Fold these 4 entries.
Entry 1:
Amino acid sequence: MCAKASMEEFEALLNESFEIDTPSEGSVVKGRVLAIEAGQAIIDVGYKMEGRVDLKEFANPGEQAELQPGDEVEVFLRQVENARGEAVISREMARREEAWDRLEKAYADEQRVEGAIFGRVKGGFTVDLGGAVAFLPGSQVDVRPVRDAGPLMGLKQPFQILKMDRRRGNIVVSRRAILEESRAEQRAEVIANLHEGQTVDGVVKNITEYGAFVDLGGVDGLLHVTDMAWRRVNHPSEILSIGETVKVQVIKINKETHRISLGMKQLQDDPWDTVEAKFPIESVHTGRVTNITDYGAFVELEPGVEGLVHVSEMSWTKKNVHPGKIVSTSQEVDVMVLEIDSAKRRVSLGLKQTQRNPWEVFAETHPEGTEVEGEVKNITEFGLFVGLPGDIDGMVHLSDLTWEGRGEDVIGDYRKGDVVKAKVTEVDVEKERISLSIKAMDGDPFAEAIGGVKRGSIITVEVTKIEDGGIEVTYEGMKSFIRRSDLSRDRAEQRPERFGVGDKVDVRVTNVDSKTRKLGLSIKAREIAEEKEAVEQYGSSDSGASLGDILGAALKGDR
């Protein structure tokens, strides 16, 4: 009975010793280095188990392993015994398990971890975090894109864990977050020592199209292109270069966003303070064209002072033309000061005012009646435009093309490029209009034909055509028409058929219309006028003489 109890106790103690001394697979155990041979360390992990581990598993990336016999190390027991009767152990897996425990705690506490970049992969880099490998995206390496990451390789430095998944073995870290935090602290310290209006020295760190970033000793300020100089600066590289030390003034500080606005021109005298004295109204100056837009051209009068020549003030004659066809960038031009607004820092300039108005010059040199010769520049539905001296045009209206017929019928005889002669009939300088007449070159045949004929004159005409409504007659080549009602004082005699073609007839002129170029004629009016004259000469209303007696006396008197 006693012997049986002793055996049970021994068995229990033996099982307990097995449980205590025999490590379980998949756990981290402590071992002692027995020897180092053939690039491997032979490690005793207890319970008379030995295993082999490559020395490189004990070294950090890019370093040599520092391991000696007798050193105690922790290894991961993957298998108690392999085919050769050795334990399968791994220092790397032990470090990984240890690292994951440590990193999970740091991730939970939002603490930084130390690591070293040791490799490059697609989209970023690999980082050794003391046993665990993490991924460092390219965008998280620095606050600005890094072209060469060579100096950062193998260098121990802090990282921030952004994301980790132990089950999948994924860890994402950031070096940029550490730098931004450090920069934020540095910025806050530097900004605390700055104030608006302060003059400081800085180093040009980066140049963009809209300005330059200047390092003020740990904090960057923006020097906008409009604050670099009082004159127009097309690109910051015109006056700045990267690495250059410049003196700037702090214009504005945003305490919340830590943005700093800087200026260079503020350290120089403002040229606009003396603009009105240097450039009085209507004074003429030579300037340089700095910029051309759709609405005009900017001309620099002196460094820092620019004025606008509006497109309407560029040329007397070139209307609706892009300013680039009149002036070119960097061209020197003479301009007149038209208006100054110092408050808005604007100067209105005129280019055409430096030359005489060509319409005024033409009016002086070509008074009405002057003959001119020019090329037909354009043909419209209402007339011709003819090129004249001074790069201006004159217009020949349809009504001034010909004396005979309609202008609409003869304008088709003209073509662009034809050289024509005309007379100046009117010059309106204010409206910039010049009226010309081609028909005036031949004189007015109507005026020449009627000569001294005026209303009330008695003339002799020749019958050329008989119609129901009257007769057509000619006088010195000018055609007129006498209506039936004007053929006689006596209604019974108002018959066109009593006349024949070629008959000579005396008529009275009732109207002279120079516009329609027509004479108003009447036989009836002549007869009435003759009767009235006879009454006044040979009889009166109280003499008792009859009309026949009076006319008979008049006829006898004529004989």
Note: The chain has six domains: 26-109, 110-180, 194-267, 271-350, 358-437, 445-539.
Entry 2:
Amino acid sequence: MSETISGGHLVAKALKAEGVDVIYTLCGGHIIDIYDGCVDEGIEVIDVRHEQVAAHAADGYARVTGKPGCAVVTAGPGTTDAVTGVANAFRAESPMLLIGGQGALSQHKMGSLQDLPHVDMMTPITKFAATVPSTERVADIVSMAFRECFHGAPGPSFLEIPRDVLDAKIPLEKARIPKNYRASTRQQGDPEAIERLAGMLAHAEKPCILLGSQVWTCRATDAAVDFVRGLNIPAYMNGSGRGTLPPGDPHHFQLSRRYAFTEADLIIIVGTPFDFRMGYGKRLSPSATVVQIDLDYRTVGKNRDIDLGIVGDAGLILTGALQAAGGRIGDAVAKRKAWMDELRTVETQAYEKRLPRQLSGSDPIDPYRLVHEINEFLTEDTIYIGDGGDIVTFSGQVVQPKSPGHWMDPGPLGTLGVGMAFAMAAKQARRDKEVLCLFGDGAFSLTGWDFETMIRFDLPFIGVIGNNSSMNQIRYGQAVKYGEARARVGNTLGDIRYGDFAKLLGGHGEEVRDPEEIGPALQRARESGKPSLINVWVDPEVYAPGTMNQTMYK
């Protein structure tokens, strides 16, 4: 008799062929045959307490490893619970596959348990969404979904697999199990456009570059570093591009970005759309020459005219531009010293102006003091995660990761609740790294029960909660629009001792009200070797400048 194989085992074989070594899931009757296949294929199954966490963890895993993440959830509410995680990955250009269960094909349109039109719901927020129609096609369509994840700018895919398709067994020889089906997606960019960029670089007196998330997506760190050093260009970083240059590098700038975007004659934007974070492109000088480099043609020139757009891999394009400019740059590199010094002066002035806040001994604790202590605490091996509103806006000004790929935030969807899942994925994927996550108390409340998952799977991390008992970013907007008398409608939380919550579940927890105790508490959390929560009570009457400058409140 020929060997037979079930649909669930075909899923596992397809995941293994893609290099997936872990799935994040919450169990359901529709999907358990996938678990059985994962056991046979040596794929770890991490079961969480909410499907949103499973999807966020798959997203986080992809960001850390460069491989696609995978979440597996049951039908109906299991899949709808994961929608937020998929939507976040879609806006953040993160490659992941969500597999959702579905009622049996034999019960199609009969009202089976948890039946919903999942594909219709997922299509607008994925690069690919489909139903697997037969057991023979399971592995084939899984590989198809993974291919689509990496077409152009990366993103998520979704598959629903009916229960009878998963459970059925077929002769192994009838199943197509692709093993070698992926080609390189790295595009070098238009050679003529790269030559034009080289000419711009040769003549620019005050250039600057913004290194965005796609620098990390493309694993283009070395190319970016060679580019800015070889051409003596000041570099600013955002999103996952943070850490491309270490703090203290002469080409690393942070606090003078607005000044640079106003005064520069050449601005190169790499892997960053002109969305709300960039003022839809209006923050760039109208007289500057603007170059945009991106993986996705649709992003180039969106919301703002540009002088040159180049579509392709950030690393290959920057390397090509450096090589092309090398023979014609002349003494321009040396002449840029005055521009670098000018920016460094602005940078130093901004830092010194804020430093008293960062060293503040005030009671309640100034949020600037908290994020300053976190920044001082980070090592070259600490992956930093931000999950929150106002408190994370503070951290974006101060916290500087010391290595590439060591900064994680939700991305442009602005999703709260990613922190626990990102910490889970980061630690599971890189157990040699320390993981530190800064939460707002509102953000932690959304997915905080998965702290227990961290305990259960022995995934130690350092969690810090900036606790002001409020959704303070929203509170500020309400105060501005409606006055202080109506500032606390629908945004005020309880005074929760989250350190005690951590201890209740078996982790390390502390409450901190004295700013001098922040550093020692972080060190004790590091030494505990456990999942930890340091609950730091910060001043609720202080708002981050980024919160006060949000366009929605103007």
Note: The chain has a mean pLDDT of 94.
Entry 3:
Amino acid sequence: MSGPSRSPYRSAYPLRGVWIVRLAVCVLILIAVATVWTTNTWLTDRFTESTRSRAQVRMALYSGNVVSELQRASVVPLLLSRDPTLIRALENVDFSQSSQLLISYVDEIGAASLQLLDDTGRVVAATDRSTIGTNLRSAPFYVEALRSNDTVFITSRAEAGNFTFTYSRAITVDRKKAGVIVVGVDLAKFEQSWAGISDAVIVTDSEGQIILATEPRWRGRLVNEALDARSAPSAVARAIQATADWGALPPDAYVMGEAVMRNEARIPFRGWRIISFTPYVSIRDKVNAVLALEIMGFAMLLALSFYLLSRRAQMKSLGYQRETVELRELNARLQREIAERERAEKNLEVAEQTLEQSSKLAALGEMSAAISHELNQPLAAMKTYLAGARLLLQRKRPDEALSSFQRIDDLIERMGAITRQLKSYARKGGDAFEPLDMRSCVSGALSMMEPQLKRRKVTITRSLPREPVMVMADRIRLEQVIINLLRNALDATRESPVPQIDLILSSGETATLTVRDNGHGIEDIDRLFEPFYTTKQPGDGVGLGLAISSGIVADLGGRLTARNAREEGAVFEVQLPILNQDKEAAE
């Protein structure tokens, strides 16, 4: 009695369970990754659009403020150029009260500065008294004002790097330009208010030059030059920031190494444009807050899964311990089942031997029936030749009688060959195979059937090719197949008024012998090749001819088929492999 044996089925189930658990964990991780990725993409798009919309609203507000400031200051030069006090001061060259007057105006107007220049370009009155006496003859706002009859707007770069914005207009006295009034527009206050938000804002003129910016060093540069102006550490920070923004949309630009969203709008004043750069940090913070919650949830779910799996492993371990006794009992039952199976196998061997003996007896019975069937043809031919020889001897024609006796001798030899060949029906054989010309086999079969053919008026047509049709076969067995087909054709045409049998031999991919008759045809073609199936009268046959012929053709490597003709009769075809030169040499 052997010890407890480990069943392969027991070990297979835990292994499969481990793989199922691993697969479930992998699926959970994939779902988590897909969820986080999808959430990140969706929220990034959503928050980006909302941030862009707010930035565009702010730009519209900023643009409106700038335009409102410029429009309010644009009417001041026209009003002051018609002020009678300033005109009298220019006429009398008395500017003692002019500066005080301008200071009182600047509070009401809200302009950055006011200046009054005489016809020589000298500042004679100003809200900033330190500029009085300064000669600004070459200043653009003075030169352009003298050239034009309207208010002139001038943007000029100051020494500090910032830009000044002025409206200027000539004051006419007695149709002569006696001076110029200059109004400064305070747009720098917008830069200070814009700097209080997270967005970077710039205003460019019609040539793309930055004239207002929350970053002072950007003023006077083009937009691309301003964005590229950064120190070396900012480049490293830019690379780090670009790596950190893995889930954000592609940035429009980088400001101080930080990815930003660019929004641009037109200011309806002299081709100016306003551009804002909104950092993606606020978007990323909002998205990361949601992603952190999702990741936390999946982490808790994964931790719970591991906890349940560990509990399941503990329960399985306890179950394995309880199953030890059951496994021993199962092993004992298996041993008993093995012993019973061995006894059943011995009984099966005895049954197989009995069945084999029964099969041998059945084969002997089939062989004896086949021998009696196949010998009927030569015996019938011998009977015919003996009757003919008797008549020839009675008529004193011994030479012709001797030829009949010679044919009888050939038939006796053939009967011996048939009995030898019939012994091989129960086994596969190939020792008697030889290259044969099927034309000679057809001629031999017709010679064998000559006595039966002479007793009836049957038209036999032969269509044989001129070239040899070579096959590898046993002559006796192949002729026997042809004889069986001819005999069946004779029996089928027994009731035909004009019986006819056609023999057609063709050579293509296979050697095909067609035996066609104009008899009654085939009634049950599905059972045609079954042993002992026949439509003949008792005593005319036992129904083994076609079954034996089909087996012989199959042994020769071919096939025997049958079908009903289109009009009347039946068609049998014997197909055998063609023996070409290469195959013949190999054989």
Note: Residues 432-575 form a domain with the Heat Shock Protein 90 fold (CATH 3.30.565.10).
Entry 4:
Amino acid sequence: MARTAECQGDWLPATPTAEDVMKGEISLVGLPAYKLGKKIKWTASPYRNRSWEYVFQSLRWMGTLVVEYENTGEQRYLDRATEIAKDWVARNKYGARGTPSYVWKDHPVSLRTQPLLCLSRHVKASWLKDSLAVHAKLLANPRLYKKGHNHGIDQDIALMGIGCRYGRKDWANLAVKRLTGTVKLDVDAQGALMEQAPRYAVYVYGRLQVAMSNMKACGRKVPGTISKRAEALKDFIAHATMPNGYMVPIGDGSAETEPKMETGTPKQKVKAYRAGYVFGRTKWDEPESAYYSIRFGPGMKWHGHEDHLGVTYYAQGRDILMDGGFHSYEKSSYRYWTLSPEAHNVPTVVGAKFRPRTASKLVKTSYGSDRQAFRLTDKAYGVSRTRSVLVNHDDDLMAVYDTASGGKKVRNIWRFAPSLKLVSKERGKVVLGDGKFRVTLLQFTASCSRLGGQKVERGGKLGWVSPTYLSKERANVVVSPAAKSVLTVIVPGTDAPKVSCSGGKVKVNGVSFSAKVL
């Protein structure tokens, strides 16, 4: 049995397998198996989950049968795939009453094209060719195109596939032209993904490899912009990957995302991206290395959260400070809370109203081999809020200084990894622990007074984190008292750091720095 380029590729899902589909049980997006039955109910939504619906309507699970047919030559796989696809085409006409609107949204349309193209290599039927033509017209429609986004890349791959399969140069030309423009918007010249969730960089990198391979197979030259920016993405992915091998969960990014690709080792250990990220580490290829991320840049869009001026911190082989995380794309109050400033390690301005989608700037940097410092500012609360961050390596610590203009008071939020439980709290010092491991949070004013009165919440309104898709775990959140300036020092690995603060100078375990950090 001949294997075809349309069927052999990385587009297939890990689950369900061809045997699962033959048995009529499909498990999608990690949810329990759903019984399809012989006659499929195409309006099914057993879990009321948008991602499940989209993947169900993508028909990629049907495509596993065609691939199995190519791999084994067993006709039963192709017969069942044809039966499923023909039934889908008959009962999901575009614009027909009874067809759910999401069936023909941009992403299901583009993702569905691949299994249908794969099937078309073995089934020469007018109903299939006609359906692919309907898909192509929607993919080519400029009003439905998601420019500068990973959905747009998928639309271009799909349109190019249909254009090349049926000799429609107009469709293939349009796909290449649009893709070049979308890649320029989605991946900047530094190689940063502009969708505000680093984990999507892995997806975009993989899809660009598919797009470039398909262009070559279609006898087309790959535009330099696409190949250069795809290559630059590798550095960004490397910098956004923590020492434990998982990507830092910023924006709509789960903490279980492993790049599983060869990125190489960048020259720099610290990198500031104009797109709104600082990533830094002590060493490459060492799980015990310290690692941090800082957010700034353009206002929230696409897969971003309201996390500007927020930090994450990993040290001594474990998560210390975490974002609230990514739960799902469901329209729930919890999902909307995970987008809010309160779900991130940020300063808030007391008594001022938050202004969504406000941009922020990185205004000062100081790079040393054993420590780095950064200053960021914005007007997300109508007045200037400014945060300075210092990270010291080897003797691990993070120091953060927050202020606001106009005499306003600030308050900050610190979300610790769920495994860290409250050990003690007294006079501006909070100790958390996991087994024998300890981490200490200390707070001062700029004049070196200890700042007491921290609230520690686990669960309740603020004390949550979603490390994996659809999960929700209690985590300790430390909320500072309101003050005109707040200096926060986080020291991993000890419950008794040696601390002194006088004359605007702080010393922690022999490490000295300004109380204003920069």
Note: The chain has a mean pLDDT of 91.
